[in-house]
Amino acid sequence: MAMELTFGDPALTARLERGMDASEEWLRALAAGAQDPCVAEVVGHLFGPGGKRLRPLLALVGAEFGERDPSSTDPYATDPYATDPSSTDPYATTPYATDPSRAVEAAAPSRAVEAAALAELVHVASLYHDDVMDQAHTRRGVPSVNARWGNTTAVLAGNWLLSKAAQLAAELGPETIQLQSKVTNRLIMGQIRELVGPSDEDDPLSHYFTVVAGKSAALISMALQLGAVRTGAPEHVVQTLAEYGEHLGIAFQISDDILDITSTSEVSGKEQGKDLAIGVASLPVLLALADERPEAGELRTLLTAATAGPEGAGLPRAVALLHRCGALAEARTVMHARLLRARTAANGLPDGPATRVLHALCDFVARRDH
Predict the structure, then answer these.
(1) Residue 139 forms beta bridges with which residues?
(2) Are 124 and 161 in contact (CB under 8 A)?
(3) Region Disordered: which residues (predicted)?
C-alpha cells in the first residue's frame, strides 16, 4: 500500500491493498490509452511515482460501509452488475472504458475501485494545476509536469484528467456526477480564492480556512462519499463520512503547511519552504503575523524578501523565526483540534474495522513527517 499502513485487521488490509493496486492499474491504463503518445506520457506522469494515495484509500474505506456483492467475499472482484454477460463485445463489459481505440480488460472494476480511481483522477488533476500556480519544480519526488513540459501543457493535461473524471462520473450515475461536479467547483473556487487572496475586509485566518476547505478538505470528503455512495451505504453514514473527511482534510493541509517548513525535500519530495518562497499564506505564517510577537516585524520583512529576491533570499532566517516564535506549535494545536473533531465524527459510525481505519488515519496525520 502506498502509505505503508496496517490497520490491525489482516483481511481488511489485504482488501485495501488489492483495491489500491486495481485502481492504480486502471489509472495507468487510462493514461496509456490516450490517443496521442505525448498526451499519454504527460497525463500519466504522476500515476507512476510515489505519493501517499490517500484519496483512493479513503474511497475504498468508504466502500467498506456499503454492501458487497452477495456472491463474493471480495469487494474488489469483478462487479457482476457492471457487466453484460450476454455480450461478446469487450467494451460492453467495461462501461468506464471511454476510449474505444484502446484495448481494455474484459472485466469491469468493482464499484469500490471505480470510486478510488475517480477520486485520484480529480486529485491528480488538481496537482497539475497547483504546481503551475506554485511554480513547483518537483512533485512526488520527480520533476513536476510544468517543470518538464511547461505551464500550458500542465494546465491542459490537468483539464484532460478532469474531463475523464467527469466522463467516468457521468457513467456511474447522477449521484456520482453531482458529487464530482460539486467538489470540482469547490476545488476551483478554493484555487481562485488562494490566488486572489483575502480582501481588506476579510480576516486572513478565516480566508485561509475557506481556501483549505475548498482545495483540500473537499477532495478528501468526496473520496469517502464516493466509496460509500457507490456501494449503497445509508445516507446518514455517507453524511457522517463527509463530515469526518472535511475535518481530516483541513488537518491534513495544516500538517502540509508545517512540513513545508520542517521537512527536507529529500523526505517530502517537494522543495522545502516552497510555500514561503512564493508567498503562500500558510497557517504557521498567519499565526506568526496575527499578533505583535517580537518576531512578527522581522518575519514580514523576510517573507517580502523571500518572494521578491532571487533564490528565496531571507528564507532560511524566516524558517528559523517560525521555529522560534511558537507559530509551529500553535499550528499543531489547531491541527490536533481538527483531528479531534474528525474522531468525534468517526465515533458516530458503526463500530468495526473500517471505522478503526478512520481513527488510524487520524494518528497518521498527527505524526506524519512527509
Answers:
(1) 142
(2) yes
(3) 66-97
